[in-house]
Automatic annotation (TrEMBL):
Keywords: Membrane, Transmembrane, Transmembrane helix. The lineage of its organism: Bacteria, Bacillati, Bacillota, Bacilli, Bacillales. It comes from Sporosarcina gallistercoris. This is DUF5590 domain-containing protein. It comes from the Bacteria. The keyword Transmembrane helix applies. The chain crosses the membrane at residues 7-27.
Length: 213
C-alpha cells in the first residue's frame, strides 16, 4: 500500500512539474524579445530614412505573439502631420522591409467620405472599419511622400459595418444605397461591404451579411 502511494505521488509530481514547465514556456513565448524589438527598430529607422521624409517617427514596436499578422515584430510609426499610424516590418516572402502607410492613409481618407452616410442611416453606436491590402503602397510603387489618392488606382477595399443588433429587413436597401454611394462619390469600381451584427459586449447576434461589387 505504501509503495503504491509513493508511486502515485511520484507520478503526480512528474505531471505537475510537466504542466508547470509548459505554463512557464507559454508565458515566456508571450513576452517580446528585447533584442528583436531593437533589431526591428534599427531596420525600420533605415527604411524610413531611405523612403520617407522627416515627418515620420517610430513610437513603439508590435510583437505578434498569436500569429495574427505576417510578421513577428514590427515597428509602429506615426506621421506627425496627418497622425496616421502604421507598421514597418520585414516581409519574409519578399525578403525586404515593407510598410502599411498607404493602406492606413487611404483607409482614413475613404472613412471620411463615407462616415456621414453611416451616421445618417444606421445606429449611433455603429462602428465603421475600412481595409486596404496592407502592402498596397509597396505593390503599386507609391512614393509615401506623395501618397496620391486611392481613386487614382483600381483598388478593392473591404468595408466592415458593425451594428449592435440583429438583421433588419431594411439592411439590404441600406447596403445597396451604400454601394451606389461608393461607386459615385467615392469612385470605387470594386470592393466588398460586410455588415456585422455584434453586441457591444462582443456577442454575435446574427450571421454577417456580405456584398461584393
Amino acid at each position: 500500500m505504501y509503495k503504491f502511494f509513493k508511486i502515485t505521488l511520484i507520478v503526480l509530481g512528474v505531471i505537475i512539474f510537466g504542466i508547470a514547465v509548459l505554463v512557464f514556456s507559454f508565458i515566456q513565448s508571450m513576452k517580446p524579445d528585447k533584442d528583436k524589438e531593437e533589431e526591428v527598430k534599427v531596420q525600420a529607422e533605415k527604411y524610413l530614412k531611405d523612403n520617407f521624409n522627416s515627418n515620420f517617427v517610430i513610437y513603439d514596436t508590435l510583437f505578434d505573439n498569436m500569429g495574427n499578422f505576417g510578421f513577428e515584430y514590427a515597428a509602429k510609426v506615426r506621421d506627425t502631420v496627418t497622425e496616421t499610424q502604421f507598421l514597418v516590418y520585414y516581409d519574409d516572402e519578399k525578403n525586404h522591409m515593407v510598410d502599411t502607410y498607404i493602406a492606413e492613409k487611404w483607409a482614413k481618407d475613404l472613412e471620411k467620405e463615407i462616415s456621414l452616410f453611416i451616421e445618417e442611416n444606421l445606429e449611433d453606436s455603429t462602428d465603421l472599419y475600412v481595409f486596404f491590402d496592407d502592402k498596397i503602397g509597396n505593390e503599386f510603387g507609391i512614393d509615401p511622400n506623395n501618397p496620391r489618392n486611392y481613386k487614382d488606382f483600381d483598388v478593392e477595399p473591404t468595408i466592415r459595418i458593425r451594428v449592435p443588433r440583429k438583421k433588419s429587413d431594411e439592411d439590404e436597401k441600406i447596403i445597396n444605397e451604400f454601394v451606389t454611394l461608393l461607386k459615385s462619390e467615392a469612385e470605387l469600381q470594386h470592393g466588398s461591404v460586410v455588415m456585422e451584427y455584434i453586441a457591444e459586449n462582443g456577442v454575435i447576434l446574427d450571421d454577417e451579411w456580405w456584398k461584393d461589387f
